[in-house]
Design a protein that fits this description.
Layout: H1 3-11, E1 16-20, E2 25-28, H2 30-35, H3 40-43, H4 55-69, E3 74-84, E4 90-102, E5 105-114, H5 116-138, E6 142-147, E7 150-154, H6 156-162, H7 190-201, E8 206-213, E9 219-231, E10 234-243, H8 245-267, E11 271-276, E12 281-284, H9 286-292, H10 296-300, H11 313-324, E13 333-339, E14 345-357, E15 360-370, H12 372-416, H13 422-450, E16 458-460, H14 462-477, E17 481-486, E18 493-496, H15 498-514, E19 520-531, E20 545-554, H16 561-566, H17 582-592, E21 596-601, E22 607-616, H18 620-629, E23 639-643, H19 647-659, E24 663-667, H20 670-679, E25 686-690, H21 698-708, E26 713-718, E27 726-727, E28 730-731, E29 737-739, H22 744-756
Parallel strand pairs: 17-19, 23-24, 23-25, 25-26, 26-29
Antiparallel strand pairs: 1-2, 1-5, 3-4, 4-5, 6-7, 6-10, 8-9, 9-10, 11-12, 11-15, 13-14, 14-15, 16-18, 18-22, 19-20, 20-22, 21-22, 27-28
Helix pairs in contact: 12-13, 12-17, 14-15, 15-17, 20-21
The structure holds adenosine-5'-diphosphate and magnesium ion.
């Protein structure tokens, strides 16, 4: 073969061919030069192999070349290294070369191929492999590869879930080695498991629950999916096992919670329902059915308002309208009457809580508590306690009265028997008048004290209540106990029933006196306080804000821990002849007035009761009252119709009114009054009527007459709590009322006030 032949062969070879000595290329073919972006002419005799080597591999390549060139001929070797393209890019090279002697010097001859393309493919594969491995190993589930029933692969999580230390404990075994022993008829069974595996192998992915065992024998609930995977002509199963112990436990806890709340709702003793917009009852419990006396089937057909007493419906509907319109002043708690299916009326306390949904409040949860018995009880307590106080008072009063009567009778006798000289007569009559005045005073107070049938909360200054009672209290506590009264002259106003507040003070004073058998000091104090968050009880029981504080303090025996805790309980008493109703009544009244009461005491160190009543702003009511009191002339010339069935009350009422200049018509009943009206040619300006009369109530009479005389005023007179004009013992707004017995001046003032108001 000719030299030219080999030259053609080498020059046109697609494999790079090179020859270099320790410095430069002696020869490169076209393919090699092109690989690095050069022409053969640019390389031969000018550049060496290191110029075509990437800087990072240069050192290794240089050493290798030096070593081989100094080591003699032969030493064929295959290298991979990074070459450097003329444009700076990397060329992955694989060279096969050996040392020869040429022209008397050692040189390296070799061929070189570029495997950059292959290299990047390998890298891609490697990255993919890493990616899938991460998916496999990073999974939160155990992932198995199975050949038939044998595990041939698994991820790290498998070890954790099954409680194994190495894959060796798993590979080669079967899923049934990690399942509870087969029990005939029991599930899961091996048979069923095999069926699932076979189905998956046939190509239908399976998903099911399975009881698995950890290595230590502990069973756990798993969710398993089986998928057939075909790789290189072989069939595998991929099994993904998810440990759902936690999920199960949570589901179980949720279920139990739900049961618990259902139970609470049903057994709370509270009737509960949820009412949506439009008044539909979205939910109600059994208690509601029992409270109203309907079956739950019947209840389904009812609106929540159907059970409300007809007279209370407007009130309740108004509340609901306000709640749904988001009115923040709508009360969250109120009382109303319900009518049972049987017609029986029950008194309930109602609590309302909004249920928030998408776009604001969608419904309200309503809790009803039947307080009928409680109310009756409160009333009984109140009365019993009043009787007790009256009894004590009667004793004191009788004693005082006897003293006064002695003065009066003794002096009268002296005068009548002519035993008094003219110089002494004036002094004796003066003493009689004095005693009579004191007796009148006392009667006045007794009247004030007993005048408490109808509760009329109004805006008042507690100082006035305390001051009015002072002399009565002194009498009540006796001479051994000193009474100190300290009233804040700038006291804020509160809203309360004055006679109730009197009762509170009397009850506390009586207790204080009982606690000071050897005498002592009773201090009654009023003060303004601004309660801030952090003060005892504030935030928890009391809202922060301005209060009027009434303190009743004694220097008596005090109470031990147990007595203090129970002192407010009805019927709790430590006294031989106590009723245990005093403090219970106090508590009831204070709560009813929106206030709070605290007790500080220690055995031997006396007792302090603190009552907090929320401050109210000076309102119209107060001003009205001043106006009323400023009336100087109490008479009039208007026409009054007096309707009263009791002849003596009617007669005195008529006389009082006539004496003040009024034109008076009278009637003994409603029908008779209407008759009088028909015969009377003129107008009637005011109707003064008893509330309870046989035949027709005062209220009904007023309605009839108001239709006849538009603008006519009405004044009711009554002797006791009357639901016709007062609801739950509280006077209805806008009604005029005077309690029997009344004095002449009281009646005239009231009639004038009604006519002018
Ligand atoms: P009663 O006075 O009929 O016993 P109360 O309800 O008024 O009933 O009081 C209950 C109990 O609280 C009393 O029996 C007494 O033990 C105790 N108690 C009330 N007030 C005082 C007080 N100021 N000092 C000491 N103990 C008191
Ligand atoms: Mg008492």
């Amino acid at each position: 073969m000719s030299h030219a032949f080999f030259q053609v062969l080498v020059e046109h070879s697609l494999v790079g061919v090179y020859l270099f000595d320790e410095h430069r290329f002696i020869y490169v073919n076209q393919a090699l030069a092109e690989l690095f972006g050069y022409t053969p002419g640019e390389l031969m005799g000018r550049l060496g192999p290191l110029d075509l080597t990437h800087p990072q591999d240069r050192k290794a390549v240089e050493e290798d070349i030096r070593r081989r060139l100094s080591g003699g001929e032969g030493g064929g070797a295959r290298h991979q290294f990074r070459g450097l393209h003329k444009d700076g890019s990397v060329v992955w090279c694989e060279a096969i070369s050996q040392v020869i002697r040429y022209r008397g010097r050692p040189m390296i001859v070799g061929t070189l191929v570029d495997f950059t393309a292959r290299k990047s493919m390998e890298e891609e594969l490697e990255a993919k492999e890493r990616y899938y491995r991460a998916l496999f190993e990073g999974a939160n589930d155990a992932i198995f590869i199975m050949e038939g029933e044998r595990f041939v692969g698994c991820n790290e999580k498998t070890l954790e879930i099954f409680g194994c230390h190495s894959k060796g404990e798993i590979l080669g075994r079967s899923p049934f080695d990690f399942s509870p022993p087969f029990q005939p008829g029991g599930t899961p069974s091996e048979e069923k498991g095999r069926g699932l595996i076979e189905a998956a192998l046939r190509g239908a992915p399976q998903r099911f629950y399975w009881k698995h065992l950890r290595k230590n024998g502990e069973p756990f609930d798993a969710e398993v999916s089986l998928n057939r995977v075909d790789v290189g002509g072989k069939v595998y199963l991929q099994a993904i096992v998810r440990d759902i112990t936690l999920r199960k436990r949570m589901e179980e806890a949720l279920r139990r919670n739900k049961e618990l709340y259902q139970d609470l709702v049903e057994r709370s003793g509270l009737a509960i329902f949820v009412v949506g917009k439009g008044g539909r009852m979205e939910y109600f419990n059994q208690q509601l059915c029992e409270l109203l006396g309907y079956t739950s089937q019947e209840m389904k057909g009812l609106s929540f308002i159907d059970g409300v007493h007809p007279e209370d419906r407007d009130l309740v509907l108004d509340f609901f309208e306000r709640w749904f319109s988001g009115d923040p002043t709508a009360p969250a708690r109120y009382e109303c009457r319900l009518v049972r299916k049987s017609g029986e009326v029950r008194q309930v306390e109602v609590d309302v809580t909004p249920v928030a949904g998408d776009g604001g409040v969608t419904a309200f949860r309503v809790y009803l508590r039947d307080v009928t018995e409680k109310k009756d009880m409160e009333k009984a307590l109140y009365n019993a306690r009043k009787m007790e106080a009256m009894g004590r008072l009667a004793g004191g009063v009788a004693h005082d009265f006897n003293n006064m009567l002695m003065v009066i009778m003794g002096n009268c006798d002296l005068i009548l028997q002519g035993l008094v000289g003219p110089e002494d007569l004036y002094r004796k009559v003066g003493a009689i008048k004095d005693a009579a005045n004191r007796a009148a005073d006392l009667t006045q107070q007794l009247l004030a004290f007993s005048k408490k049938q109808i509760l009329e909360p109004r805006v008042l200054r507690l100082n006035d209540v305390v001051a009015d009672m002072e002399s009565m209290l002194r009498r009540l506590i006796g001479e051994d106990v000193e009474l100190r009264v300290r009233l804040d002259p700038h006291l804020w106003l509160v809203k309360a029933d004055p006679s109730q507040m009197e009762q509170v003070i009397v009850n506390l004073a009586v207790n204080a006196r009982d606690a000071m058998p050897q005498g002592g000091c009773l201090t009654i104090e009023t003060a303004n306080v601004e309660l801030e968050e952090g003060h005892a009880g504030v935030g928890l029981e009391m809202a922060p804000g301005p209060y009027v504080k009434l303190t009743v303090e004694d220097t008596g025996l005090g109470m031990d821990e147990e007595t203090r805790e129970r002192a407010f309980e009805p019927f709790f008493t430590t006294k031989e002849r106590g009723t245990g109703l005093g403090l219970a009544t106090v508590y009831g009244i204070v709560k009813q007035s929106g206030g709070h009461i605290w007790c500080h005491t220690e055995p031997g160190k006396g007792t302090t009761f603190e009552i907090y009543l929320p401050r109210v702003e000076d309102g119209e009511e107060r001003i009205e009252e001043r106006d009323r009191e400023s009336h100087t002339w109490e008479g009039g010339t208007e026409t009054v119709l007096v309707a009263e069935d009791d002849p003596s009350v009617r007669e005195v009422t008529v006389s009082i009114l006539k004496s003040a200049g009024y034109r008076v018509l009278e009637a003994a009943s409603g029908p008779e009054a209407l008759d009088v009206c028909r015969r009377h040619p003129g107008l009637v300006d005011v109707l003064v009527t008893d509330v309870v009369m046989p035949g027709m109530s005062g209220r009904a009479l007023a309605t009839r007459m108001e239709a006849m005389y538009p603008g006519m005023k009405v004044l009711y007179i009554s002797g006791y709590t009357d639901n016709i004009i007062a609801r739950h013992g509280v006077l209805e707004d806008g009604l005029n009322f005077i309690q029997k017995p009344f004095t002449r001046i009281e009646l005239l003032r009231k009639v004038r006030q009604v006519l002018d108001g």
